[in-house]
Amino acid sequence: MIKKQAIPILSPQAMAAVDLAAARSGIDSYGLMVRAGHAVAAAALKRFPPALRFVVLAGPGNNGGDAYVAAKALAGSGIETILHHFGRQDALKGDAARAFRDCPVPGRPLEDYAPRAGDVVIDGLFGAGLDRPVPEPVAAVIARVGDCAVPVVAADLPSGVCGRTGRILGAAFEAAHTVTFMTPKPGHLLLPGRALCGTLEVFDIGIPGRLIEAGAENIHENGPALWGDLLPSLDLASYKFRRGHLCVFSGGASATGAARLSAGAALRAGAGLVTIAAPEASLAANAAHLTAVMLRQVDDVAELRAWIDDPRLSAFVLGPGFGVGEKARDFVLALRERRLVLDADGITSFADAPDLLFDAFAEGDAHLILTPHEGEFARLFPDIAVAEQLGKVEKARHAAARAHAVVIYKGADTVIAAPDGRVAINTNAPPFLATAGSGDVLAGIAGAFLAQGMPAFEAAAAAVWVHGEAGRTAGRGLTAEDLLPAISLPV
C-alpha cells in the first residue's frame, strides 16, 4: 500500500514566495491565474445550478484577477453574470490587470451591489493575504450579503478572514464553499476562519510539488499521514511489558475519577499495563472501581523515586485530579528524565514558576507533553498568550521552543507544536468533546502512545486525532466515560 502523504499548510506569505518562485522558474503566472479562476467558476456552476445570477466581486490584487477570470468563464456559460469591483480598475497591475482587460463583463463599483433572491456571490476581493481590517464599504457589502442569506463561493479564503491566524479582520463573508489553490492556509483550519469557509476545495493549478516542498513551513493538518507509520504494531511476539507500562497519578480520596479516566483511556489506546499511583487516603476509592488497571500506593516523592527506578515503567501522566501545589511540583521534578504527560493541575502547579519546569526538561530529546487549554496556556506562557500579533500556530511554536516540550494547545482547533518547529493543526474534533473529563481521556491516550515508544510529537498528534475520532463515534451528548469504548486506532 502506498502511504498517503501529509499535505503541507502554507501561510499566505509562504504561498506568495512559492508563486514568485514558480514565475522565476519559467512557469506562466497568468496561466496559473486562469486555472485558478476557472476552478472557482466551475465550483460555482457545479454547486449552485439553480442560480439566477452570478455576482462576481473583484478586489484590487491578484485575488481580483482570479475573480475577473471567473467572471469571464461564468458569462461564457450563458448565465447572467455581473461584476462589482473594489478600487480603481486602472490601478491593477501585472496578471490582475491582464485578467481585467480580458474580461468582457463590465464592472460597477462595489458599493452599488444590492443583493437579490437567486444571487450567488463569487468573493474575489482579498483572499488569504489580508492583514488589516476590511474597509468600511467592503464591510457594508458583507453585511448586506449576510442579511439576505446570499450564498458565497470564496476564491482562496472568505474576504475578511486572516489567512495566517484565522481571525476575522473587522468583518468577513461566511462562504458556502471555498476554493483555495495548491495547499490549505492556516486560516482555513484555525477558528473562527474554519467555520466561515464552508466546504473547502484545494485545487491544483499546476505549481510543481518541489516548489511547494521548498516553501513548506513544517505545518500540516493533523492525521494518520503524519504519524501512522509510528503507531505501535502488534505481532505474535507482543506481550504486556513490550506494549509499555504507564503510570497515572491519582489525587486524594475525593478526586480520583480523573485519574481513572486517563488510565482507562490508556488501556484502550494500547498500553500493555497501566498503574494508578495513589496516596493512601485514596486507595480504597480507587480500588473499588478498578479491574484491569493496577494500583500502587505512592504518598510522597521519596516513595516515587524508589519506585521509578523500575526500568519497566515507560511513561507517566500527572495532573488529572491530582491537586495544585508543592507535591505536584516535587513529583514532576522527580520525573524530569522520564517521559511525562503533564496536564491540568500539574500545569497549574507551575504557574508561579514556569522556568522551574522548563529548566527541568531542557536536556535531551523532548520527552514532556504539555496539554494546556487557553487558561492554562496563559498561566505558563503569559507573555505569549497576550501577544496579539501572534496566531495560535505561532503561539504554540514559541511555547514549545521555550519549554523544550511538545505542546498540545487545546481547543476546538487544537494545535500541536514541537520544539523543533513542527506543527499539526487538528480539525476532526466535534464540539461535543467539550465536556468534563474529556481532557483526562486525551492525557491518557497521549500517555499510552508515549509508553509504547512513540516520539513525543507523534504521540501527542496521534492522541489528539484519536481523541477526536472517539468523540465522533460517541456522538452528541457524550460524557467522558462514553469516550473510552469509542477509542480505536487507525488500521
- Spell out the CATH superfamily of the largest domain: Ribokinase
Question: What is the CATH level 1 assignment of the largest domain?
Answer: Alpha Beta
* Amino- and carboxy-terminal Cα gap: 12 Å
Kindly state the number of beta strands. 17
**Shape assignment:** elongated
Low-confidence stretches: none
Could you tell me the CATH topology label of the largest domain: UDP-N-acetylmuramoyl-L-alanine:D-glutamate ligase
Short précis:
Residues 223-491 form the YjeF C-terminal domain. This protein has 2 domains: 12-217, YjeF N-terminal domain (Rossmann fold, 3-Layer(aba) Sandwich), CATH 3.40.50; 224-486, UDP-N-acetylmuramoyl-L-alanine:D-glutamate ligase (3-Layer(aba) Sandwich).
Folded structure, characterized:
By secondary structure, the chain is α/β, with parallel strands linked by helices. The protein has two domains: 12-217, 3-Layer(aba) Sandwich (Rossmann fold), CATH 3.40.50.10260; 224-486, UDP-N-acetylmuramoyl-L-alanine:D-glutamate ligase. The chain is built from 21 helices and 17 strands. It has a ten-stranded mixed β-sheet with strand order 8-17-16-15-14-13-12-9-10-11, with helices on both faces. The chain has a seven-stranded parallel β-sheet with strand order 3-2-1-4-5-6-7, covered by helices on one side. Helix 11 links the parallel strand 10 (273-278) and strand 11 (294-297). The model has no long low-confidence stretch (mean pLDDT 96).
